[in-house]
Design a protein that fits this description.
Blueprint: E1 5-9, H1 13-24, E2 28-32, H2 36-43, E3 48-49, H3 53-57, E4 62-65, H4 70-78, H5 83-86, E5 92-95, H6 101-112, E6 117-120, H7 127-132, E7 135-140, H8 143-156, E8 157-164, H9 168-196, H10 201-209, H11 217-220, H12 223-227, H13 236-252, H14 258-275, H15 283-291
Parallel strand pairs: 1-2, 1-4, 2-3, 4-5, 5-6, 7-8
Amino acid sequence: MAGKKVGFIGVGIMGGGMVRNVLKGGFDVKVFDMNPDAVAEIVAEGATAATSAADAADGADFIQVVVPGPRDVEAVVFGDSGVAETARAEAIVIQHATIDPSTMQNVAAGLAEKGVKTLDAPLLRTPMHAASGNLGFPVGGDKETLEEARELLMTVGDTIYETGKIGTGSALKLVNNMLNITILCAACEAVTLGVKSGLKLDMMLEAFYHTPARARHFEMIPGTWESRDFTPGFMTLLGHKDIRLAVQHAADVSVPVNVSSAAYSLMAMTEGQGFGRDSFTSVQKLIEAAAGVEVQSESGTILGEHRD
């Protein structure tokens, strides 16, 4: 697909790694972001700068959207100087943000009125995987449209989960993030209780590893518990947004999510305490403050032989 044109909108923590792999795949990329410094970095690596989302979409075969949430997607697609103003008929918009299924369906329906095709393809995994080209994509949408975009998606990922109709990709992402955040909150409560009970963190995590209580956050984000490093990664404000959308979606389809609703409250409080732009593991600080203890590795290296 060398020579195919990609309009890429959003080159932050996730999008920056992704767009570099799109360039390596031989695509002609025009990039837009509200941060001009981020755009300049990608232009230095071979992309062309766009002046707006509409400019990025103009003449593109594919338009990839990597922005924070539902309102951002709607603004980028249908707002002033948005994608819908210039996207050509039969172009494919690939929506990568974590949004609710109903918003995703509405965006796709609005684009279809202009003859533009859509894939619902949010991102699984981490910024490290975005940079290495090993993301996972739950993809909702027409199978023929997916086949047209498959080579592009596989420049930045190694796995595609064909979820069904538009909206199901977003549903899988919300379910995934709801479970991720709920497990994190429970794990932070558990180790805080253990430390206050006189247990050593390193020994607890080794014991957890060999039981169903294993939580992979300790292996994948070890700095939080080794050195009190809460650098994102995945920011609290995004975790709060994602689990809020999941809980709202659950209400829309009449599914009780009692445990995850408690995790939602913890994430809301964590952001409210000023940790919005820190790692979502900052929920550990909130629980520690209530308990009056601090949780940290005794050795400085947790689960060394088990880490990814």
